[in-house]
Amino acid sequence: MSVPSQATQLVLSERPVGPITASTFAVKSVPIPEQLASGDVLVRVNWLSLDPAMRGWLRDTRSYVPPVQIGEKMRAQGLGTVVKGSGSIHAGATVRGVFGWTDYAVLKENEVEVISAAEGTSELDYLSTLGFPGMTAYFGLFEIGNLKAGETLVVSGAAGAVGSLVCQLGKIKGARVIGLAGSEDKVTWLENELGVDKGLNYKSLTFTADFKEHVGYLDVYFDNVGGEILDLCLGRLKQGARIALCGAISAYNEEKPRGLQGYLNLISQRAKIEGFIVFDYVSRFGGAAQEMSRWISEGKIKRKFHVVEGLEKCPEYLNLLYSGGNTGKLVVKVSKEAQADSKL
Description:
Order of helices and strands: EEEEEEEHEHEHEHEHEHEHEHHE
Distance between the termini: 28 Å
Structural class: alpha/beta
Strand content: 25-35%
Largest sheet: 7 strands, mixed
């Protein structure tokens, strides 16, 4: 397996105010070492995951992970092939790790996880259903949302990586599921492919009336978008309702996000709104992944990948997450050698 002498990286060149632009990142070449230190592996990056939280990592502010620094390689999880090892992980192994926006990466063995796709799954599932998006959906819905059979679940960003899984987990649990998305095509996909009870287009002129008609009042709201839709849901809470605050896609590019207007309903309805970070559940990922794998093999979870190509276009592709330009899990094909399962 031939290895180039230089790796291509995308590093942060300025902190964006608003959407990511052509000047936000710069392309950089770095030498690939000919000899590895003991315990190191050299990985050819095949796939990179693009996720909404990445926009927050560019802000120089206190958060659950340190911000990406100016001049630093952009952080991202991916899948790759080991091309050179110095310990127990040998060339040819497929691994998952935080490689960043690069085509080759050197990491310690304990910084990568060897992936062997379970029956009925694919390697790309380890960036989606069996990766952080799947774990976010699982623990956000079942631990924070505490969803019960027969309840009404509303999911925003329902056609995205996390939202589409939350919808399906809700149906597995026996809930009535209402999915919110930004186009009629996405609504059709949610209803016909994922089996939600009702899909609603939030860009429709009649959305608020449609929401009240089809939702009535809700037990659980899984929030991926924040903003006006969160306020709408705050006004439609049942007594004891739970809001799982996962993300705020509508606000990530705003310099000053709008504040909540309807929060007093949390008091009158004895309801709860709670934020969460999936990393808090790392010790329980194994059990959740086993259950998710079983649901995949049983046909209860369907997966959709939005595949784009080209490392240097990552900044452009990342903006798709904030404009509603993706359906399903957004992944970047970095290596020409990478192959996706034709069934996905």
